[in-house]
Specification:
This protein is mainly β. 0% of the residues lie in helices and 51% in strands. It has 5 domains: 8-138, Immunoglobulin-like (Sandwich), CATH 2.60.40.3880; 142-250, SOR catalytic domain (Immunoglobulin-like, Sandwich); 263-369, Sandwich (Immunoglobulin-like), CATH 2.60.40.10; 374-668, 6 Propeller (Neuraminidase); 671-781, Immunoglobulins (Immunoglobulin-like, Sandwich), CATH 2.60.40.10. The radius of gyration is 40 Å and the shape is elongated.
Length: 787
């Protein structure tokens, strides 16, 4: 037994200082009665690593039954250099095994692996022992910046950099370094910008970064003056912070010198120009060293020198050195007449005063329409693995757009509420869809009519919820829940502000509905809210997407994150992909992304484990693309059949059917433009002549009809006996403005005279043609009796 309480001093060899420890005596433990001298370590029993400065409990059992004084010494041994440091010296031991604990303070010990050893001497008997476990002392990493040593401005050149240098030492090589920029000394306030993150290697390392002005995500760092700092983390030690020697200055960016070539700059994609639009902006480049005169023309064919061109801007004076200019076209030619409907190529004609004028054609067409640009749809589509199919239920809701839908998992039906008609009239109708048929529900009470509201199904409480929306006058923030047959308004103590166009989806893993953004008709919003079935709670994530509305969001169940894409921001339409994990938002930057868009729809395909995106609108042109997101990359799908290009539609995934369903939206209407005959052609009966046209059918179900008529205005003619001959009917229209031809044999039944060629395109189910075109040239049928 311990005869008296002794004060044990740690004697460091070589001298490292002394720490006085008091052994802790615990009750007897049973040992082998036949043993006269014994020393056994109880702790540490296994190898482990501790941070430098941690206290390690060293417990041992000692027995001395010799009847002579026994003295025990406990020490640690550095396994790198075999230096020993005494923890406890000359501890008097007598009697059967006692448990003694010595607390080892590692604060002054260099980083290394240590074994714990002990000796017990009693008379002529000695006993030595080693602990079963070894202790590795992990020293904290250190970092010292060495450059820049004075405040440095980032050069304006995009290829120039600032060199940041430092020396770092991580004894264990298990750390991570993050180099950052901050406007203050509080590097945990959330306004830090990180420019490098990398793992550390063991021991001292001189390292550097050639910083080009971008953060770790590749985004440009905003202008400002920043302190350089570093955060060094490892597995065992507290976070270490290091400050730079100087600051970096990011100047206000200067506009780069543009390399403009002559031609059409915008529109830079196929565009629509409806008659109800006041103007259509056309941006063009010149970049001539001398003054020039410029014309803008449109042409419906590929020969831009045959006289069919229509001048819409004549002899505009352009000064030398001008690089860009814009013409707001009102849809008329220079004579003040509206140009006919058609698909046109834009032409820039530059007159330099000598030589022939230079004509430069645009690469994208402009479709001029006198009909409505787009119409509401009542179509219902389903998607299996990759292909879309148009369903034909016996009854469907009236055409509408900007409605919202959610899938009721318990009742296995889609719930659809609200929306607006083509005239802009909102509705408060509730419809259910069971994969084959639509059923209108007539609840006792319904929410007020609205569109662009937030809607989701909360499986945790078995309710479909709607929040906010717009009725054309008022922005709302009321909340309603639907139990499959009745709507009930919820009284809220806390709620998001009034808004419409917010993105919303249900997180099945956390049991909350997540809402982001929207607009109150004054500002675009960037706040994040969660609904847990009882209350709304605003989330304050570390990072958030820029404010946006009419974006789309869906929950990725495989990866347990929300995916947000696109929408309209203060800067215009967007094509960013953001991910929300319940704590913060993270921007993803895949190599391939869908184009800029808003009012698109997304849902999660449980079978494919992918997000499905369809449609949307960029400026005034709807989109008919199908994209999928697998958690890392976007992929453009190419189904053989697809819905018409549209926006403002709804989309849900039916878990029972294992299919995606799409409803309603705003679709484009078809248009046609005749190209040939380009000039008057003299023909005789029996001859074959080619008719060429270009058509664009975003609906996918339109038909083309060709007619020869001796009346230039057949719809207005009251003349009896006017000849009209249909030469082609029910020809399927083509998408994307491609050209098509038809060879017609001039029938003998036509009397000699002048005949016009007309083309009509009409959607399936429409009562009148959507577009009409007349050919530039005419067929002049010669009397065979005349030479």
């Amino acid at each position: 037994m311990i005869r008296k309480s002794v004060l044990l001093c740690v004697l460091m060899l070589p001298v490292l200082g002394a720490t006085c420890l008091t052994p802790v005596e615990t009750p007897d433990r049973i040992t082998n009665a036949a043993t006269t001298v014994d020393l056994t370590f109880v702790r540490p029993a296994t190898d482990r690593t501790v941070a430098r400065g941690d206290v390690v409990a060293v417990e041992f059992l000692a027995t001395n039954r010799t009847g002579q004084p026994g003295l025990a010494t406990i020490f640690v041994e550095n396994r790198s250099n075999l230096e020993q440091s005494i923890l406890a010296a000359d501890v008097e031991i007598s009697g059967t095994g006692r448990s003694i604990t010595v607390n080892w303070d590692t604060a002054t010990f260099p980083p290394a692996q240590y074994s714990i050893r002990g000796t017990l001497r009693a008379g002529d008997r000695n006993r030595t022992a080693n602990s079963a476990g070894r202790i590795r002392v992990d020293g904290p990493p250190t970092l010292v910046f060495t450059a820049p040593t004075e405040d440095t401005t980032l050069p304006a050149s995009g290829e120039a950099t600032i060199t940041i240098r430092w020396t770092v030492n991580d004894p264990e090589g298990d750390g991570t370094i993050r180099i950052g920029l901050d406007t203050d000394l509080d590097h945990g306030s959330g306004n830090e910008i990180f420019i490098l993150q990398k793992a550390l290697v063991r021991d001292e390392l001189r390292d550097s970064l050639e910083w080009n002005g971008e953060d770790v995500d590749g985004d440009k760092v905003p202008e400002g003056t920043y302190r350089i700092f570093a955060l060094i983390e490892d597995k065992f030690n507290p976070l270490v912070t290091a400050e730079g020697l100087a600051r970096v200055i990011v100047p206000t960016p200067t506009e780069p010198e543009e390399n403009v070539t002559a031609g059409i700059i915008k529109p830079d994609l196929p565009s629509e120009f409806a008659i109800f639009q006041p103007v259509f902006p056309i941006e063009f480049g010149i970049n001539d060293s001398s003054d020039v005169l410029l014309d803008l023309k449109i042409d419906s064919d590929d020969n831009h020198q045959n006289g069919n061109e229509i001048t819409i801007l004549s002899q505009r004076f352009i000064r030398a050195g001008t690089k860009k200019d814009t013409f707001n076209w009102d849809g008329k030619d220079t004579a003040g007449d509206f140009v006919p409907d058609g698909i046109y190529t834009l032409l820039v004609v530059i007159n330099r005063g000598s030589g022939a004028p230079q004509t430069i054609a645009s690469t994208h067409s402009v479709t001029r329409r006198s009909t409505a640009l787009r119409v509401d749809s009542r179509q219902t589509w389903e998607r299996g693995t990759t292909e879309w199919s148009l369903l034909e239920p016996t009854e469907s809701p009236s055409p509408r757009r900007d409605t919202r839908a959610a899938y009721d998992v318990v009742r296995q039906k889609a719930v659809v509420f609200g929306g607006q008609s083509d005239a802009g009239t909102p509705t408060n109708e509730t419809w259910l869809f069971d994969r084959a048929n639509w059923q209108r529900v007539n609840p006792t009470t319904s929410p007020p009519a609205r569109y662009d509201h937030a809607m989701a199904y909360d499986s945790g409480v078995d309710e479909t919820i709607i929040f906010g929306g717009y009725d054309g006058t008022t922005v709302m923030n009321d909340m309603w829940v639907f139990d499959g047959s009745e709507w009930t308004e919820r009284t809220l103590t806390t709620a998001p502000s009034p808004r419409y166009g917010a993105a919303v989806a249900y997180d099945v893993d956390r049991g909350v509905t997540v809402l982001f953004g929207g607009t109150d008709d004054v500002s675009i919003l960037d706040d994040t809210w969660e609904w847990d079935g009882l209350d709304w709670r605003q989330i304050m994530p570390f990072a958030s997407p820029p404010a946006r509305y009419i974006a789309a969001m869906a929950y990725d169940e495989e990866r347990q994150v929300m995916i947000l894409f696109g929408g309209a921001t203060d800067a215009g339409l967007d094509q960013e992909t953001w991910e929300y994990d319940g704590d913060t938002w993270t921007r993803r930057q895949p190599l391939l992304v869908p184009s800029l868009r808003a009012r698109h729809a997304m849902s999660y395909d449980v079978e494919q484990k992918k997000i499905v995106l369809f449609g949307g609108v960029a400026e005034i042109a709807a989109n008919g693309e199908t994209w999928t997101w697998d958690g890392s990359e976007w992929t453009l799908e190419k189904p053989s059949i697809r819905p018409a290009a549209r926006d403002g539609h709804s989309m849900i995934y039916d878990r029972g059917a294992k299919k995606t369903f799409q409803f309603f939206g705003l679709t484009g209407v078809p248009v046609i433009s005749l190209i040939e005959p380009a000039t008057n052609v003299t023909v005789t009966a029996g001859q074959f002549q080619t008719i060429r046209w270009r058509d664009d059918d975003p609906v996918g179900t339109s038909k083309i009809r060709l007619v020869i008529d001796d009346d230039p205005n057949p719809a207005e003619s009251t003349e009896t006996g006017a000849a009209e001959l249909e030469i082609l009917a029910d020809r399927p229209a083509s998408p994307d403005g491609v050209q098509d031809t038809f060879s017609v044999q001039i029938p003998a039944s036509l009397v000699p005279g002048t005949y016009y060629v007309f083309a009509y395109v009409q959607r399936d189910g429409a009562t009148t043609p959507d577009s009409r075109s007349v050919a530039p040239g005419r067929f002049i049928i010669r009397d065979p009796a005349q030479n």
